């Protein structure tokens, strides 16, 4: 094996592990530590100094982490947005944005701060269009 091939393989491994790390978050709560895929998070809400993370399978995990810390961790992913000071939402699970509410695919409704409506709608359209384009390019959606 030559050095160039070795370095290329090592670079590929580093990229893989970096992607693997950023696609998961670690959440602490009273029962222990949980590793959660960011794609499985529908939304998180802060209530009474606790953060509840709602997952796509219907489960929810209550964290002892502060909301700002969870927001900082999730905000590095372009699909997460802050529609209200107490909520962070995965835009892949937004069904509808109506007036000052966001309706999610799990039939939950999240408040939307009036001053964020325009920005969130723009980001959601971009996110939705990007998801659709990725699905088309990967062959997950048949072309007409």
Write the layout of secondary structure elements.
Layout (H helix, E strand, L loop, with lengths): L2 H20 L1 E6 L2 E6 L3 E7 L2 E6 L4 E4 L3 H9 L4 E5 L2 E4 L3 E5 L2 E4 L4 E3 L5 H22 L6
Antiparallel strand pairs: 1-2, 3-4, 3-7, 4-5, 6-7, 8-9, 9-10
Walkthrough of the structure:
- It is a single chain.
- The protein has 144 residues and is of the alpha+beta class.
- Helices cover 35% and strands 35% of the residues.
- It has three helices and ten strands, in the order αβββββαβββββα.
- The chain has helices spanning 3-22, 67-75, 117-138, and strands spanning 24-29, 32-37, 41-47, 50-55, 60-63, 80-84, 87-90, 94-98, 101-104, 109-111.
- The strands form three sheets. The chain has a five-stranded antiparallel sheet with strand order 5-4-3-7-6.
- The protein is globular and about 60 Å long.
- The N and C termini lie far apart (46 Å).
- 18% of the residues are buried.
- Residues 132-136 and 140-144 have low confidence and may be disordered.
Element string (H = helix, E = strand): HEEEEEHEEEEEH
Mean pLDDT: 83
Helix/strand-derived category reads: alpha+beta
Largest β sheet strand count, sense and barrel closure: 5 strands, antiparallel
Concise structural overview:
It is built from three helices and ten strands, in the order H-E-E-E-E-E-H-E-E-E-E-E-H. By secondary structure, it is an alpha+beta fold.
